[in-house]
Protein 1
Amino acid sequence: MNRFSTDEPDDPLKQVADETIDAIWPRYAVLDESGNVVTCDMMTWARTLSMGGQRLIAQEDLPGGYWISTVFLGLDHGWNPNGPQLWFETMIFAPSTGEICPFTGRVHAHGEEFFMDRYSTLKQALEGHEAAKRWFEREREAKA
């Protein structure tokens, strides 16, 4: 549903608005068997990602309690219909502070975001994951 939609299921305006916006700026996607991004409607995206198996690309522990994670977002995080579509994200998280989070009431396993980058393709995401690890090692060595 987008900002032009109504609550009427058979509303022709809703159908035209949805199709037009999705054609101009596809925002939802899933991965095919080869890891290619395939744009889709919101319900297909929600069903596919709720079944799991597509989000996690790579995750691993880094020295010093840091943690790196690369995921398929399934939502275009480019936020610009004229810019590149960004479907994947790599983040490095600092170690946990051990403090209780005021929002969740629990101690989180990882701390604040330390690094973030986004990518358009699975190949870029995998390369970006490795590049982020190299960046992390250079940063660590520079501070040693």
Protein 2
Amino acid sequence: MSSAPPEPPEPPAGSGRGAAGERRPDGEQLSPAAAFADRLDEGGFFSALFDMTFTRYVTRRLAGPVYIVGLAVIALSVVYGLITSLSVAIGTGSAWGVFLFLFGVILTVVGAMLAVLLLRVAIEMFVAVVTIAENTRPHRLRGWKGRRHE
């Protein structure tokens, strides 16, 4: 006589959250949108967003999505640059069009690589500043301020 295995217990609220493609303990696979929504909701994202005292930071949670949006904008710019280079090359109607196209492709690729680099550095700088602020806050609350080094 075989009986069905018992179902796993429901995970507590706020647990089992993972990245896209991962599974929760209950076996449910998270879509990228669900993983992002879970990540934003974790720890009261919207209450932190409207925190007028600025004691809670949202920069770390938004760094990944902002980077993805930035990469998407850069990719669209690359496509636009390639199409523009091709249309200019065709519009010349001469052999110089090939050189214009190659120049446009090189300029577009180098510009895109530079844009990705600058986007990454800018986001890392913001995250680093927030991390410093989070790490120095406990010292300030313990009365660390105002001491002189003698």
Protein 3
Amino acid sequence: MSALKQKFGEIERGPNMTVKEILDMTEYSEGTADIVDIKYAMLKFNELIGKYTNPVLIAHNARFDMHYVGKEMERVGMKMKQAPVIDTLALARNYLIPILEYLASSGNELAKQSLMVLSPDGSKPKANLGILGKMFGIEPLHWHSGLSDTQQLVGIVIEILKFFKANESFLLSKDMSDRILQTAKEIEKKKRAKRMREISAALKKKAI
């Protein structure tokens, strides 16, 4: 895992952490990094959060990351420090892509080109970290390394915020609110369907 502090457009390392210490906290593809004890990694992560007065955590697919970190902290007898979390995957799916689709339907060529990057085969636009980086022209130095992925995410967050600022009027419009509500309903519908399948499978198993 890896974490970076972001302030005023500059990337800075966390408090009292050298580059090697950050790399030591990853388990991706850095062949020279030593694998450290998970408790040490969780301790460093909590130290990073606790250093600041009003920290906000940002992660791509944050639901997975926060669940994983929380469980690992529980396993080593620790508790994760509380902080608001922004999920860039949710931002992209619920706000960025709908705005791009609206702009594209209005004839905006840049929006059309962006959607082609997110959906080269014409299917539903994707919002994984790599494809968003490609759309914004932010390529990682090393694919699937903790530090490189985090640096790419910082760049993507900055570009998303710039995009939102440039399209603020539509972002706050009723049309956008309706789109978000519709998306929320679709997600809830899928969740209900999944729960019903699980219940049905459990009942069949019990019957057998």
Protein 4
Amino acid sequence: MKRRTFISVLGVAMAALLPSAAAAGQPPQVRITNIRRVFHNGEHNAFTDLVRFRDRFYLTFRSCPDGHMVHPSASIIILASTDAKQWEQVHRFSVDKRDTRDPHFLIVKDTLFVYTGTWYCGQTSPKPQDYDLNQHLGYAAWSKDGAEWHSPILLEGTFGHYIWRANAFDGKAYLCGRRKQAFAVGPRGEGPIVESAMLASDDGLIWRTRALFPAIEVHNTAFQFAPHGKQLGRSGFGIVWHAPQLHALRSFGGAQRCACVHRQVRGVLAQQVQAGLQRAGVHQAHLGVGRIVGQKGAGGTRGERWQLFF
């Protein structure tokens, strides 16, 4: 049975975001004030990202009539709104013989990009045992004003990479792309041999490998740059913080195991704190005097759930 889904927006109210509370180590109080549907077309709609660009909100997601799994019928939809209540579709694109998945926004050089990693399918939907990460390829849509869009644009340098979240620093674009170590040919799908690479670009379209995230089953990596070029990352399986010196970090889910990973990223060291549960759909943002991280957590007795950490 195909599961039909719709896209919703959560209204989240944050209280007690005060320096004194943050200094005391107390998390802010959070409550969900409303949930409203903004899009429904009878298809499977999922994997959202949200950004504000030129005084408008933009929401992107994958839409597919055949469901969650890998299908060449998938496409990426982009909606726009001035108040986050009323939304209109401003663009939709697909890639021939490929499944467009997990779109993510990036604003760099006054341009709004949407990046998507695509599985190769051919004419029909492949079986899971036939998924080949080595055939993954990144594509983009971009716009200067949010109204006129250019797509799909093949991203040079991303073949064999499942591209994920992006960020910008000092006028350059950076992108996470997970890949098989040494682009191993035998194994299909994804697994423990997968590593996450940091890709860099001057124009947001042509990419090269800049560094590696800690190579311990890192998936779905989200990362941000602090004001001095430090980098704070959150992967699907742990926390990654690149800083001038090693810090003692506390996992949002409780510190369990620390491992120093001696890889140079802009001349800084990396440290990883493993988390106890599998993580997916990780999002990061600055809020008030601290940082908020949202993610879908799988595990425990309550099943999947959306979690916020401060």
